[in-house]
Every structure is written in structure tokens, then in C-alpha cells.
Amino acid sequence: MTVFNNRISCVAAACALFSTSALAQDPSLTNPAISAVLDGYYQNTERPMAERVEGFGLGHTELAMSANIDDMFYGKMTAVVEMHEGETELGLEEAFIQTLAMPGGFSVRAGRFLSDVGYLNNQHVHTDAFSDRPAAYRAFLGSHYFDDGVRLNYVAPTDIYWAMGIEAFKGDNMRAVDEHGERDFKDLGIYTAYTKLGGDIGANGSWQAGLSYMRNENGRMTADEHEEHVELGDDDHGHDHSHSANYTGENTYIADFVYKWAPNGNYKYQHLTVSGEYFKVTDFTPLAHEDEHLSEQSVDDQQGWYLSGVYQFSPNWSAGLRYGEVDTQEMHGDHFHGQKLKESEVSLAWHHSHFSTVRLQYTNQKGTNFDGIEDDNVITLQYVMTLGAHGAHQF
Amino acid sequence: MRINSNLTKIAALALMTSYSSIANAGLNIFACEPEYAALAKELAPDAKIYSATTAMQDPHQVQARPSLIAKMRQADLAVCAGAELEVGWLPMLQMKSSNSKVRSTDQGLFYAAEQVATLDRLESVDRSMGDVHAQGNPHLHFSPERILQVAQGLTDKLIQLDPDSKAEYQASLADFSKRWSEAIPVWEAKAASLQGKKVIAYHSSFRYLFSWVGIEQVADLEPKPGLPPSSSHLASLLKRTEAGDIMAIIVASYQDERGANWLGERASLPVQVLPMSVGGNEQSTDLFSLYDSVLDLLLGVKSS
User: Fold this and answer.
1) What is the DSSP letter of B210?
2) Which residues of chain A from 4 to 63 reach within 8 Å of chain B, CB to CB?
3) Distance between CA A65 and CA B103 in Å, rounded?
4) pTM assigned to the model
């Protein structure tokens, strides 16, 4: 596996061909767009920090409803039913309103929604080309980061696409571990800023690139003098279903890009999607004045990246490759242990129609000091089907 | 920080140019399909017109890509087929472009299908029927009479948005309608010998064309609308061709020819690709030449 230790290993994997559903053509109050997603799978073991468990299971079973509320507001609600250790849990992944008629290219979204940082985060999981998010997403964003908050977005009136925005969130799911429950967390935990640029390259290709910054007021760990072994986040080595980030820091920087190609720009028969993201998470070590033992130690920043390529070679078949790494830091009393996880993934999907997908995915995981993973193989067989309103897709 | 200052410069420049373009009138028109870009060009020759798709792209499956968001952000008017043809991407563009002008048909949004009676409306739609549209077939630009109705509706919309140029728009409409009305009988005379011919075609893309010239589409290469031709379906079509009454297999410029070629070879039938819209072949440079080219190609395949 030396190849994978090289930069050459960047030849990897994939992302969502079709994305997030939104509204039907003209849903109204009496006719809202209602759609459901059915997701079921079987896998031989589980990926760390992921939502899917070993054996048979259900993924995100979603029920979404959206409509224009009036000429000023659009509203959407997505309820997610998940199974967790035999219990059925009902979660609310989205419940937001968005302005439709603000002047000057501005819009405001408020409520619970997916943050627009990075490329994949604002896409719904069911549109992904792989059964789980890349390890960097699972480690730093709890697979997909949605929260209660507000966003201001601006689109510039330029021929090259240029959007930028700022968000503020509660950030409960992004808090660093609090072993003793005595920490005074800030209620406004997360601030983000992002910008995205995009355009076409000839008739065949389109691209988008983005830069995001996330400030996490509650992301820094507190020193622990009593415990010999404290992990970042609430990683309990078991199945974590709380959508919480496992590894946090005060500052997160994300760079992302996506390139899509189709012959003549016609996406019906063949198309290729190449995407990649890089994460850097800094300022997670306890402040020096809290614990003099840690003050002199320099700890590497936590980081992660992935590169993915998905090719749909006929309307019925698509295949994807993805390679990703994540480097995290685990606190052991007065010092940190570096952890590393590398994932190489291949997926093959059959699409009977636009609305039904059956996917077989193989993941090889190589870990260093990472939850006991050394060289694990995960095989997942999954279906994802949507019913109801024909949604529009994000790029 | 050099990037940031460059971006600021680009933004400032863009703002300046966009404001100056408002000053010398001329609407900024976003057309969902090239046939409506061509129609807009006939009716608003001074407008800045952008077509979101080409005749080589299936308008059912378009990516809500960044360049389209940027174009829609600047548009005063969006002209689309409607009848849910663009349902997979237009709502996302509207949401992402934050341009309130093109959000509603009360303002700068125009659906051609709302101006005419569409064919094949459905009382109820079920996904098992495939990718069908309850509001009828949206590929209505091959109906010359409907094009006249759409032209009238689009002119009304242009006047609503830009009342100062009312006289110009009315003159353009009168000119276009006159030339178009004169062309219709010429096309119909030319196409007379096509009446009653039977074809196998891909999707219901040419529903209006066939209905107009009297061609009968006896079978569809798609087993269900939106699903690609399957081998079992093609085998059943091959059986159908044994009756010997089929003139040709017709495929649109954005459709895959493999299924048609397979069938054509085995059934010894010609396969003809027709331009789906303006730009679909070399000859089709506007709506008039598109009609000319499509009829020429059909006549060519008939005599072969």
C-alpha cells in the first residue's frame, strides 16, 4: 500500500451526482412539495464516527415538506427517522425559512439548516455517491453540520459566480468534551464565513471552488489533570448517533472544489464529477494558564482531506473512487497522541431511474492509533430511493 | 490578500458595468432553452440574451451550475418552456440567485406552456408512468401556431417589464408574426408528403412536430418516459418493425443514438437525428431555419 502513502494516492474518489432536493415547480400552501427518502443497507462492520451500524440498518429515512409561504418567504422542513440501538428516533434536520424577495442579491435563512461551509455539507446525505461522508466530515463536522441559527448570503451580479455569506449558530453539537459538566459554554458557539466562486470551462465542464472559515467558541478543550486518558469530543468508541463533531478546535479552515464534466454539457448519459476538500482544525489544546504541563508542548494541527471522482457511464450505472485521510489529536493527560485514518473507497451504483439507486461500496481503512483500526475492510450494500415531489438538485 | 483585492476590483467593475447596462435599456433575458433565446431575439433584438442550455443538452437534466446562477442573478426576465420541464433545476437557480425579479410569473418569469393548450395533459401522475408531466408535453416549440401564441404572450411580458419600449416590441412582434405566418403554409406544402408516415422516435420530443405534419409515432425507444432504451424493449420494437410500415427511427440531437442504431441495423431502417432546437445542427441558426432543416431532413429520409 505504499502507493497510498504517496501523493499519487490523490487519485481518488467521488461525490454527489445529484444533490439536494428543493421545491417542485410551484408548490403552494395547498400543494406543498412533499418527498420522502428511503435508505436501507447491510454492512459487515462499521466505519468509525459514521452513522451506519454493523449488519442490517436504516440510514436517513427522510420526510421533507417545502413550499413558498408567501411572496416573501420559502419554508422547508425535513424530519429524519433514525434507528439507534433499537430505539426509533425522530430528528429534525431542517426547519427553516428563507427570504425570496430581498433586493440586491441578498437572502436570509433562519431556523435549523445545513451550514454552507465546504462543498458537501449543504448537500443532503441521500444524494451522495458513497454511503458515508468522508472521514474528515465525520471527524470535524459530525458527518454533516446542521444547527439552529441564521445566515446572510450575497450573490454578486457578476458573470463569474461569486457568492459569500456569514452564519451564526448555537453550536451545541460542536462543543469540545466536558468531562465534568462544569464548563461554561457560550450559547452562540459557531460563526462561519464562506465564499464560493464558479463558472464554466467550455461547453463540457463546470467548476466551483470555495473557502470557508468556522469559528467555534466552544471548540477548545479544557485541561484535565485527573484523568489519564481523555479523548476529544464525545467519542465513546461506540456508535455515536448524536451528529456531534468528534474532534473540535476553535478555528476550522476549509478549502473545497468541484469540477463536473459531461459531453456537450449533456448530463443525461455520461458525466464525471471530481471533488475535493481540505480541512484544518487549529487551537484545540487547553490554554496554557489552565495547565502548565501543556504549555510548552507544540501539537500538530488536526487536518483532513479527501479527493473523489464519480463517473456515470450510462444512465443506469455509475462508479466512484474516493481517497481520504484525517489526522486528529487525542489528549492523554498532559500530552497529545496523534491519530491517523486513511480510507480508500470504491463504489458501484445501479440506477433504475432518476429516483432509485442500489449501491455496493468497499472501503479499506488503515489506521494509526485510531480506535484500534489497523487494516479493516468494510463492505456496504445500500439502497436509496426517493418518492414524492421531483426535487431540484444543487450543483 | 492579493486575491481579495483582485476580487474586490472584479466586483467593482462588474457593478459598474451592470449599472451602465441598465442605463442604455435592453433587458437582460435568461432563456432556459435555445428556442426561447431565438424567439426572444426575434422579439427583443436589443436585449442581452443568454441561453442556459444548448440543443445538445437534455433540458430535463441540467445542472443548476454556478454559471447559470450568476446569469440568473443578473436577469430581468427568464423565459422557459414550463410544464415542469425545468423542475429539476430552475427552482434551485431561483433559490440560489436571490433575484426577486425572476421569481414569479407576475413579474419577470415567463412560461411558454402557460400561453398555449399543451398536448397530453394528465389528470393524475404516478412515478410508475415514468418521467411525465401533468401539465402536458412541454416540447411545444415545433407547433407553429403555438409559437405565434407564445410570441404574443412574450411580447406582452416584455412590454410589462419595459413599457418605454412598447412601440419597438409591438413592431418586432408584427414583423415576426407576419414572416412566421407566411412561412407556415410554405412549410405545410413542403411537408404534405410526410402525412400518414409512421416513425419510431425517442421520447415524446417531437410530439408537436408529428402532430402538425401528420406523422404517427407508433412506438417510443424509451420503455417509459425518461428511462433509457432497454434491450428487452428494443427487442419488442424490432418485432413491431416487421410489419414493414415504418419510415424511420427519429432521435433528437441531445439523445443517445445507440439504441436507435441497434434497431435501425436489424430492421434495416434509417436513423435520423433531428435538431431539437436552434443550434442542434449547422443549418439551424434561428427558428425559421430550424423548421426548414427539420422538414428537409424528414423529407430526405422519406425519399431514401
Assistant:
1) H
2) 22-25
3) 20
4) 0.87
